[in-house]
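PROTEIN–LIGAND DATA SHEET

This sheet pairs a single protein chain with one bound small molecule, nicotinamide-adenine-dinucleotide, given as SMILES. Inputs appear in the order they were entered. The predicted three-dimensional arrangement of chain and ligand is reported afterwards as a token string under its own label.
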Amino acid sequence: MIYSYGVPIPDHSSRSLCDLFSLSGRRAVVTGGASGLGAQIVRRLAEAGADVIAGDIDAARAAALASDVAAATGRRVIGCHLDVADTTTLAAAADRAIAELGGLEIWVNNAGIFPTTGPAIDVADEFIDRMLTVNTRGTFAGAREAARRMTHGGVIVNLVSTAGFKASVGISAYVTSKHAVVGITKALALEFGPLDIRVLGVAPTVINTPGVQAQLAPLRSAGLDIDQRIAANLLGRMGVPDDIARVVVFACSDLAAFMTGSTLAVDAGSLS
Ligand SMILES: NC(=O)c1ccc[n+]([C@@H]2O[C@H](COP(=O)([O-])OP(=O)(O)OC[C@H]3O[C@@H](n4cnc5c(N)ncnc54)[C@H](O)[C@@H]3O)[C@@H](O)[C@H]2O)c1
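PREDICTION REPORTED AS:
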């Protein structure tokens, strides 16, 4: 073991890349894990060797996904009801990881909502409260509940958005909620570093999920050429959930052992 100012430096250099990428033996919780990005994150975490709890307000869908992924990967995958706006359910999912999976090393704060705000000058307090409760407080509380139970270190990944870095007209409450998640990622990385818990953000551009399709439907009906606008990034295409899930697996793995506090843009160059 090499030491730097008394702090042991884990030497990963003799481990194979496959071993560094593996999540074998890790226990994970994914919020909003029943569909969209969360479902693909659950699939990839299990494929990488983790046992996973997929928590979602849609408990039936989470249970169906869990049984499919368990059958495909041979991992323990549990679907459960979880509402990130209700902290008791976050704590219950974390407790379930300890009780039923035997521990907790990975927590993915994925659940989020993105209804169109409309003009900021007209937005109601209740709308702002809901956005901040789910996207911002839900992320903070999820990370806190996870860290309280990560007794031998771990990784927390927060789903941000390119809206965490730049504003777009008509989504001011969402922009506000996701800028805050960039801050949560930095602040908790600072406090959790000494606990050997890394905290990273992942910031997607537009990805083809049920939630996004629901938002795009009225724009398409209004005759807007929305697909061309979405593909106006440096790679010329819309993202798919696996584009994000692969980066989440990387962030959770020991390949990223020296990364914390930053938010990784998965944006096809759209922030460039
Ligand atoms: N898809 C994109 O283009 C995109 C881009 C940037 C960031 N994001 C972020 O990624 C995350 C996932 O987005 P998505 O496109 O997969 O969304 P989605 O709407 O397709 O799926 C969201 C999932 O979360 C669940 N959910 C919603 N509210 C919840 C709550 N209060 N508690 C628990 N579960 C809840 C839903 O039931 C659903 O299964 C969100 O945080 C979103 O802001 C998405």
